[in-house]
Amino acid sequence: MSPVEIGSLCVAALILLIFIGMPIGIGMLAVSLVGVSFIRSDTVAIRMMAQVANDSLEEYLFAVVPLFVLMGLLVTISGVGRDTFDVFERLLRRLTAGLGIATVFANAVFASITGISIASATVFSRVAVPEMTRHGYTKRFATGVVAGSSVLGMLIPPSLLMIVYAVIAEQSVGRMFLAGIGPGILLSLIFAATIVLLARRRRDFVFEADENTAAYEDLGLAAMLRKSVPILILMLLVLGGLYGGFFNPTEAGAAGAFGALVIALLRQSLDRKTFWSLLVETGQITVSVLFLILAATFFSRMLALSGVPRELAHVLLSGSLGPYGFLVFYLLLIILLGCLIDSISIMLILLPIALPVASAAGFDLIWFGVLTVVAVEMGLLTPPFGLSVYTIKSAIDDPDLRVGDIFRGAFPFVIAMLVALAMIAIFPPIATWLAGA
């Protein structure tokens, strides 16, 4: 067999292994090792795997992963998410479906210091959903808003998916973070417009009753300022330091983690047992992410050795499909895979194949990365996988709330994400103007 045929069989074997339940990282390592063995030799395969382990994880940049993860976990347990929601609830309560819009913008701000969508889904399912249902919103709509707006956690910087993409695509993490700001703001505004449109056209979808008789908590100016200070300090520390040129991404993560630790200690929400649990969880998340990156790097080198990406680029770009036909096909494939497997796995499987094609097509890889992240995040809301939906279900633990209801509530936000994806694809400066691309 030719190297291209071996590489193609390895891709097919990986997909088969995933569908029968093998962990993605182990599957990638296995097929890559076998692929290189057939293309070259067993000795070369073992040496390449050892070299990949050294090359892919030795970079100083990877320290950013545990730091941002720890910061997100500390912020979650310190009550900053609840305070952020309280502030936006006070500011937007008089608008049509104001609590839904407050949830979106509170999630957007919370995303700017956590970078993990599941953390946002967990916090706001416990904070926003009870408040919205108390004020006459349907559980379906309330949980749908939380699920939809939780995706902002992986788009608005800092973002774990942006870091993973930057590493695989060999792009600047700082530029990827900058590229996420415009699309994040755009998606927040489209979500808010979707909520207003639903409230005016489909009131039965949004509200249980026509009149809201529940009382709002009276939150004065001093209380609003007190609740706003922690989130503003963290945003200034992380984003201000990063974009002001004072910190690189790893140093910004360290500053943010330290700031989040100080806030948690001052609020007395952190004891030794809790802190140790957070450190263990941070380690588990970090190891899993880095192991996947190692496996994806080996898989990428095996594919490059086989020549599959080069042949694929030639076939796709020289035929009737063309560059933008490839882009549409790629995004649709991501959305389809999002119904079946998790976000990071999708990127690790597709990017080693798609990036050489995107480069050959002349696409800006920063813009291409933003499109990838938005499309991947749609998988958090689509059945049957829908990780954000199941996170909300487990966090609320209401026997009367069905998973299907949450999926139906989140569906309008899937449509909104499709609109945002199309706008970013048609108008690349939405993603690239801040990144200087």
Automatic annotation (TrEMBL):
<feature type="transmembrane region" description="Helical">
    <location>
        <begin position="410"/>
        <end position="435"/>
    </location>
</feature>
<feature type="transmembrane region" description="Helical">
    <location>
        <begin position="174"/>
        <end position="199"/>
    </location>
</feature>
<keyword id="KW-0997">Cell inner membrane</keyword>
<dbReference type="GO" id="GO:0022857">
    <property type="term" value="F:transmembrane transporter activity"/>
</dbReference>
<feature type="transmembrane region" description="Helical">
    <location>
        <begin position="229"/>
        <end position="246"/>
    </location>
</feature>
<protein>
    <recommendedName>
        <fullName>TRAP transporter large permease protein</fullName>
    </recommendedName>
</protein>
<feature type="domain" description="TRAP C4-dicarboxylate transport system permease DctM subunit">
    <location>
        <begin position="12"/>
        <end position="429"/>
    </location>
</feature>
<comment type="subunit">
    <text>The complex comprises the extracytoplasmic solute receptor protein and the two transmembrane proteins.</text>
</comment>
<dbReference type="GO" id="GO:0005886">
    <property type="term" value="C:plasma membrane"/>
</dbReference>
<feature type="transmembrane region" description="Helical">
    <location>
        <begin position="252"/>
        <end position="270"/>
    </location>
</feature>
<feature type="transmembrane region" description="Helical">
    <location>
        <begin position="282"/>
        <end position="304"/>
    </location>
</feature>
<comment type="function">
    <text>Part of the tripartite ATP-independent periplasmic (TRAP) transport system.</text>
</comment>
<dbReference type="InterPro" id="IPR010656">
    <property type="entry name" value="DctM"/>
</dbReference>
<feature type="transmembrane region" description="Helical">
    <location>
        <begin position="101"/>
        <end position="129"/>
    </location>
</feature>
<keyword id="KW-1133">Transmembrane helix</keyword>
<feature type="transmembrane region" description="Helical">
    <location>
        <begin position="324"/>
        <end position="353"/>
    </location>
</feature>
<keyword id="KW-0813">Transport</keyword>
<feature type="transmembrane region" description="Helical">
    <location>
        <begin position="6"/>
        <end position="39"/>
    </location>
</feature>
<keyword id="KW-0472">Membrane</keyword>
<dbReference type="InterPro" id="IPR004681">
    <property type="entry name" value="TRAP_DctM"/>
</dbReference>
<keyword id="KW-1003">Cell membrane</keyword>
<feature type="transmembrane region" description="Helical">
    <location>
        <begin position="60"/>
        <end position="81"/>
    </location>
</feature>
<feature type="transmembrane region" description="Helical">
    <location>
        <begin position="141"/>
        <end position="168"/>
    </location>
</feature>
<keyword id="KW-0812">Transmembrane</keyword>
<comment type="similarity">
    <text>Belongs to the TRAP transporter large permease family.</text>
</comment>
<dbReference type="Pfam" id="PF06808">
    <property type="entry name" value="DctM"/>
</dbReference>
<feature type="transmembrane region" description="Helical">
    <location>
        <begin position="365"/>
        <end position="390"/>
    </location>
</feature>
